[in-house]
Description:
The chain is an alpha+beta fold and 434 residues long. It is built from 10 helices and 21 strands. Helix content is 26%, strand content 34%. The protein has a 6-stranded antiparallel β-barrel. A hairpin with a 3-residue loop joins strand 2 and strand 3. The longest helix has 33 residues, at 26-58.
Amino acid sequence: xxxxxxxxxxxxxxxxxxxxxxxxxxxxxxxxxxxxxxxxxxxxxxxxxxxxxxxxxxxxxxxxxxxxxxxxxxxxxxxxxxxxxxxxxxxxxxxxxxxxxxxxxxxxxxxxxxxxxxxxxxxxxxxxxxxxxxxxxxxxxxxxxxxxxxxxxxxxxxxxxxxxxxxxxxxxxxxxxxxxxxxxxxxxxxxxxxxxxxxxxxxxxxxxxxxxxxxxxxxxxxxxxxxxxxxxxxxxxxxxxxxxxxxxxxxxxxxxxxxxxxxxxxxxxxxxxxxxxxxxxxxxxxxxxxxxxxxxxxxxxxxxxxxxxxxxxxxxxxxxxxxxxxxxxxxxxxxxxxxxxxxxxxxxxxxxxxxxxxxxxxxxxxxxxxxxxxxxxxxxxxxxxxxxxxxxxxxxxxxxxxxxxxxxxxxxxxxxxxxxxxxxxxxxxxxxxx
Length: 434
C-alpha cells in the first residue's frame, strides 16, 4: 500500500518545482515612472493653456439684471382715503366756544422770530439732504450746422433721479425732450461728477424716459455719494401738506423749494391710462423738472409741467409716483408698452345713473392707426370688458394691457348707443406695442 502511494507521489513531483521570478530592474522602473510623470505634467500644462484660450468662447452670455420697482406701501388702487368726518356744530350749551375767547387766543400768539425762521429752513434743508443724493442733471447735446455752414452745439437740460441700481448699471428717470434725437447724453450726479448716459426707452404718453449709466464709469466716491430715490405713496399726500420740490422746478438746477399741496383730485387722461396730479403753490415754469418729496424724504411725485392746466402754468404740477411705478419698471427693462389706443374717462355707477351712460370707460377719442381703430371702436363707445374680465376704469384697463403681449388677439366688449338705446358689440382686437 505504501509503495503504491510513493509511486503515485513520484508521478506528480514536477508540480512541486518552484518558479522563480526574474529580479526587478529598479533603475528601469524609476526611469519609466519619471517619464510618465513628466508626460502627465506636460499634458496638464497644454490642456490648461488650451482651456484658457477657448473657454471665453463657450461661456454663457451673462443675463442682464432686471430692474424691479418695489412698492413697499401697497398700491394706491387698493387704498382709499378715509372720508373726513364733519363735526356737527353745537347749537347751544356751555361747550360752545365763545368768540371773544377765540380772538383772545389768536392775539396771544407771537410772530416767529428770525431765529425761528432760520431753524425752520434748517429743518427743511435737512429733510432734503437724503433725497437730493438721488437727484441728477441730464444734458442732451446735438452737433448741428446752421444755414451759413457754421457748426454749433445745441444743449437741452432737465433734472432726473436715480430709480434703480442693479449692481452693474444705474437707471435714471428724466424727461424725454432732453434726450430725444441727441448725439450725446451727459449725467451729472450730486457730487458734481459727470459721465455719459445711454438712452433705454421712452413713454410718449407721459413724456418720460429712462437712461442707463454703467456703474464702472463712476468712481468709488461718487458711488458712495449717490443713492436710489426712495419712493413713497401718493395716497398719503393730502391737500395742505408741506412738500419739497427738488431738481429744477423753476428751470434752473440744484433747487430746493418748500410749498403746500393745493390739490390731489385732478386727473389727466392719456392713451389707455390716466394719472393723478399733485398741484402745489410752488412757483414753476414750463421748463420745470424734478421731483416732489414729503417731509420724510420720500418721492411722492415726478414734476411734469406739460400736465399743468391753463390756470396752473405758473406753479409746480407733478404726476403721482404711485401711478408711475409700473411704467418706470417697464422703461428700465426696455419692455414693450402694450396699447389699445383710446382716450377716455371713467363712468362711475353714480354718474351712470345721472347720465344714462353705461358704467365703464367712455371713449372720447381713438388714436389713428391704433389697434382700437383697426378693430372698429369709435368715439362714444363705452368699453365694459376685455376678454372675460370687466374693466370699468382706465386704471383697470392699463393693468389688463400690462398683462398682455404684442400681437395678442383679445376680445373687447363695448356698449354702443343706437336708435333704441345702448347695445353690446364685441370687437376682435390685435394688440400692438409702442
